[in-house]
Design brief:
The complex is a heterodimer of chains A (372) and B (380). With 372 residues, chain A is mostly helical. Helices cover 53% and strands 10% of the residues of chain A. Classes of the chains: A mainly alpha (372), B mainly alpha (380).
Chain lengths: 372, 380
C-alpha cells in the first residue's frame, strides 16, 4: 500500500502488496519500500515470544530453539544458533545454469520481506529492514537459475540469504556488474555482514518466493502483450478476447493473493495475553501458482495461433512466425501436472511450479517476438 | 439456489462408466440444458440414451440424443460441452472429497501427525478456500482417532519419540488437495456464468476444463505416492513390508497392487496436455474434446484413489491387530466399515481383482463418501 502523504514511499504489511505496486517499486530509483508501523509492531511481538524461548532454562520448542534431525530434541543456545546459521545456507544454496535476471531476484527480496512482514514467521524487524535496505539500494542477488522444484525455492532463496548475510561467497549484480556482496555493501554504506539469528535462515528460504517473482514478471509481460493486441483481438474474435481477459484476471488474482500469504514453517499464533505457540505444518507448496503459470502458457499457445492467422499489424510472417508458434506449442505440457520425489522420499510430492513459471516466462517472450 | 445447484440436485449420476459410452448423467444434463422445461418433463430419464464414444462433435451428439425433437441452431451452441463440464465438476468434487478420505485413512495407517492440519496454518497462514476446506475435512474425518496421536504412535512402537514431521504427501496435502479444489471452483464459476448468460464461451470453458485436468493429474500424483509409502516399512513408519498380514515371504502382499495405481497415474498424466485450438472461430470442437478428456481423467483418478483406500484399509487392519483398544476417527471408521462390507482384508495370496473393481466403484459412484457423510455430516 502507498502512504498517501508520500507517493515515493511504499509501505508493506504482508497483506496488501499487489502486482502494480511491485512494478512501481522496481521501476524507480526514488521509490523506497518500508515496513508499515502496524506490521513492525506485530513482528516485534512475535519475535519477543521467540526471544523468551531462547533464554537459559527455556523448554524445548521444536523447530524454534532446537536443532534438526539428530538434534531435534536438543535445545541450542542463541550463540549456537548464530554459528549454525552461518553454515546452514551453504548446503541449500545450490543451483546451476546461468544467472536469473537481476530484476527478478531483486523482486524476490521485496516479496519475501512482505511475507515476513505478516509476523507469523517471527523474525526480527531488523532482518526485514535489512532485506528492504538491500532492495532499496537497487542491489540484486546473483542467483543461479536451475534447481528448484518449487516445493520451496530452497536453492535460489538460500543463495539470496547468503547475500543478505553478506557471506563471503555471496555475489550480487549492481548497476549491471557482478561483484561480491560485501564489496557493494561497503561502497553504498550498508553493513558488510548481517548476523542471522534463530529461525532467520529457514524463514528466508522456506517458501516459493523466487517462483512467485518469476511468475509476477511472466504475467506482467503477458499483460503488455494483451495491451498491444487486445483491440484487434476484441474486434476479430470477441469470445477469445473475453476468455483470455477472464482467465488472465484469474491468474492475476492468484498472483496477488499469493504475494500476501505466509510460506514458512513453523508459524507462531497468538494464544492470548501476548503469548504465542508454534505450529509445525507446511505451506511451502504454491500449488495454485504452478497451475496458474501452466494456464498462462495455454493462453500464449492459443494467442500465438490467432496472431499468426489474424493479426494485421504483425510484421512476423512466413516461416519465422510458424517456427515461433510451434516453439510456443512445445511449451504446452503442464509442468505442474508432474511430480518426482526428492530427499529420500521425505519430499515425495513437488509442485514443479518453478519450472512452470520459467516455462511461462519463455512462452511470453516468444509471444512478444511474434508480435514484434 | 443458483441454476447450477438446481441442476446438480435433479440429475441422477451414473454409477459405472463403460468403455464404449459416456455416463448417462451427461445425456440427462445435455437434454435438460437444451430443451424447454415442458419438453424435459416428458423425458423418461432412466431411458435416456448413453452417448457412444464414437460420436465426436456437438452436432453428432445432439442428433443422437434428440432423434425426434427439433432444436434450433442457436440452442445447440456449446451445451453438450457444458453438460460434460457440469458432470466433471460434480464428480470432481466427489473425488476431491474421496482424496481427503483416502488421505485420512492413510494417516491412520501411518499414525500420522495432525499438526499440519491445524486450521490456523490455513485460515491465517495461507487462506486459499480449497486448502481451508481440505484441512477441515481431514480433521473431521480423523476426529476421535487415537491412532493419529502421540499415544498411538508410541503405542505401535515404531516411533521412539516425536516424529520429525511426516512426509510431504501427508503434511502438504491440504495445499495440493486445496489447489485442485480451487481449480474446480474456477470451473464452477465458468459454468455458472454460462448458465446465467444462456451462452457458452468455448475458449473460457476449455481453459477451465484444462485447468481442472492439471489438478486431477496432481491429485493422482500425491495419492499414488502415499500408496507407495505403505509398501515400504521405513516409509510407512513401521508397517509390515508390503502390508503382508502374516507369513511374510510366502505371502506376497501389495507391491503389484500398488503398481496398478502407478500405472494408471502414468496414463492419467498424459491427458494433461492442453487441447489445441483448431476448428475455426469460436468452434466448440476443442471445448468438447477437453470435456471428453476430463471425463476420462475422472475414471482414471478414481482408480488411483481406490488403490490408496484399499491399501490404507489393509494398513488400518494391521494396526487393529496390534492395538485393539485404540480408536480410529469418526469418518475413517465409517469408511472402513463401509469398505469391509464388500472389500476384504488380504490375509494370504488370493485373487484381488474383485476387490479392486469394487473399491473403484465405491469411489467413482460417490457411495463411500456418501456413507461417511451420513455418519459425520457433509464434507466440504
Amino acid at each position: 500500500m502507498i502512504n498517501g502523504n508520500d507517493s515515493n514511499t511504499i509501505y508493506i504489511d504482508g497483506h496488501s502488496l499487489g502486482l502494480s505496486t511491485v512494478i512501481k517499486a522496481l521501476s524507480s530509483d526514488t521509490v523506497k519500500v518500508k515496513l508499515s508501523d502496524q506490521a513492525r509492531a506485530i513482528c516485534s511481538q512475535t519475535r519477543e515470544q521467540v526471544n523468551e524461548w531462547l533464554v537459559e532454562d527455556a523448554p524445548v520448542v521444536y523447530g524454534i530453539n532446537t536443532g534438526l534431525g539428530n538434534l531435534k530434541d536438543t535445545v541450542l543456545s542463541p550463540e549456537a544458533h548464530i554459528e549454525w546459521n552461518k553454515t546452514i545456507p551453504y548446503p541449500h544454496a545450490v543451483g546451476m545454469g546461468d544467472l536469473i535476471d537481476p530484476v527478478i531476484t531483486r523482486t524476490a527480496l521485496l516479496l519475501r520481506a512482505n511475507v515476513l512482514a505478516r509476523g507469523y514467521s517471527a523474525v526480527r524487524v531488523d532482518l526485514i529492514e535489512r532485506m528492504l535496505a538491500v532492495f532499496n539500494e537497487g542491489i540484486s542477488p546473483a542467483i543461479y537459475e536451475l534447481g528448484s522444484t518449487g516445493l520451496s525455492d530452497l536453492g535460489p532463496l538460500a543463495q539470496s540469504a547468503m547475500v543478505i548475510a553478506g557471506l563471503p561467497e555471496a555475489d550480487v549484480i549492481y548497476n549491471g556488474q557482478r561483484e561480491s556482496a560485501q564489496a557493494v555493501y561497503e561502497r553504498v554504506g550498508l553493513e558488510k555482514e548481517f548476523r542471522l539469528e534463530c529461525k532467520e535462515v529457514l524463514s528466508q528460504m522456506n517458501g516459493s518466493t523466487m517462483t512467485q517473482a518469476i511468475s509476477l514478471h511472466a504475467f506482467n509481460g503477458f499483460e503488455e502483450v494483451l495491451a498491444q493486441i487486445g483491440p484487434d483481438l476484441q474486434t476479430n474474435n470477441t469470445d477469445l478476447y473475453e476468455a483470455v481477459q477472464k482467465t488472465a484476471e484469474h491468474i492475476k488474482q492468484t498472483i496477488n493473493f499469493e504475494n500476501n500469504i505466509t510460506c514458512d514453517n513453523p508459524l507462531l499464533f497468538e494464544i492470548g495475553e501476548g503469548k504465542y505457540e508454534p505450529v509445525m505444518g507446511c505451506n511451502c507448496s504454491n500449488t495454485q501458482v504452478g497451475y496458474a503459470m501452466d494456464l498462462l502458457t495455454m493462453l500464449t499457445g492459443d494467442l500465438s495461433m490467432w496472431i499468426l492467422e489474424h493479426l494485421q499489424s504483425s510484421n512476423v510472417k512466413g516461416d519465422r512466425g510458424v517456427s515461433l508458434m510451434i516453439q510456443i506449442d512445445q511449451l504446452q505440457i503442464p509442468a505442474s501436472a508432474d511430480s518426482i520425489a526428492t530427499k529420500g522420499n521425505q519430499e515425495d510430492h513437488v509442485e514443479f511450479s518453478y519450472g512452470a513459471a520459467r516455462k511461462a516466462k519463455r512462452a511470453v517472450s516468444l509471444l512478444k517476438e511474434l508480435i514484434h | 439456489m443458483n441454476k447450477l445447484d438446481v441442476l446438480l440436485g435433479c440429475i441422477d449420476f451414473e454409477e459405472n462408466f463403460d468403455n464404449e459410452h459416456y455416463p448417462r448423467a451427461i445425456s440427462r444434463l445435455a437434454l435438460t440444458l437444451i430443451l424447454e422445461e415442458s419438453t424435459t418433463q416428458n423425458i423418461k430419464f432412466n431411458e435416456v440414451k448413453k452417448i457412444p464414444k464414437t460420436l465426436h462433435t456437438e452436432t453428432e451428439i445432439l442428433e443422437f440424443l434428440l432423434d425426434d425433437v427439433s432444436v434450433t441452431e442457436k440452442e445447440r451452441s456449446g451445451f453438450v460441452s457444458l453438460a460434460f463440464a457440469i458432470f466433471t465438476y460434480a464428480k470432481g468434487i466427489d473425488l476431491a472429497k474421496a482424496t481427503d478420505l483416502s488421505l485420512s485413512m492413510n494417516m491412520e495407517a501411518i499414525r500420522g501427525e495432525l499438526g499440519a492440519f491445524d486450521d490456523r496454518l490455513h485460515s491465517l497462514g495461507r487462506p486459499y478456500a480449497g486448502q481451508i476446506s481440505s484441512a477441515s475435512n481431514t480433521r473431521r474425518l480423523l476426529e476421535n482417532s487415537e491412532m493419529t496421536t502421540e499415544k498411538g504412535r508410541l503405542g505401535y512402537g515404531y516411533d521412539k519419540g516425536p516424529r520429525c514431521q511426516d512426509a510431504i504427501s501427508y503434511r502438504a496435502a491440504p495445499q495440493t488437495h486445496g489447489g485442485v479444489r480451487d481449480n474446480l471452483d474456477f470451473l464452477r464459476r465458468t459454468i455458472e456464468e454460462s448458465l446465467e448468460k444462456g451462452a457458452v464461451n468455448p475458449y473460457q470453458l476449455k481453459y477451465a476444463l484444462d485447468a481442472v485436468m492439471i489438478g486431477f493429474a496432481d491429485l493422482g500424483n500425491i495419492s499414488e505416492r502415499r500408496s507407495f509409502r505403505l509398501t515400504d516399512s521405513h516409509l510407512s513408519y513401521g508397517l509390515p513390508t508390503n502390508l503382508v498380514y502374516e507369513n511374510p515371504g510366502f505371502n506376497h502382499g501389495f507391491p503389484v497392487i500398488q503398481a496398478v495405481g502407478t500405472a494408471v497415474l502414468g496414463e492419467l498424466k498424459t491427458l494433461a496436455l492442453p487441447t489445441r485450438l483448431y476448428g475455426g472461430k469460436s468452434s466448440y470442437i476443442p471445448t468438447l474434446v477437453s470435456g471428453f478428456k476430463v471425463v476420462s481423467a475422472l475414471e482414471l483418478l478414481s482408480k488411483v484413489i481406490a488403490v490408496e483406500v484399499f491399501m490404507s484399509a489393509q494398513g488400518m487392519e494391521l494396526l487393529k491387530k496390534e492395538m485393539e483398544t485404540f480408536s480410529f476417527g469418526k469418518g475413517t471408521s465409517a469408511a472402513f466399515e463401509k469398505l469391509r462390507t464388500s472389500v476384504g482384508v488380504v490375509k494370504e495370496n488370493r485373487y484381488v481383482i474383485p476387490d479392486l473393481l469394487e473399491s473403484d466403484k465405491l469411489i467413482i459412484s460417490g457411495d463411500l463418501v456418501a456413507y461417511v457423510e451420513n455418519k459425520i455430516g457433509k464434507l466440504e
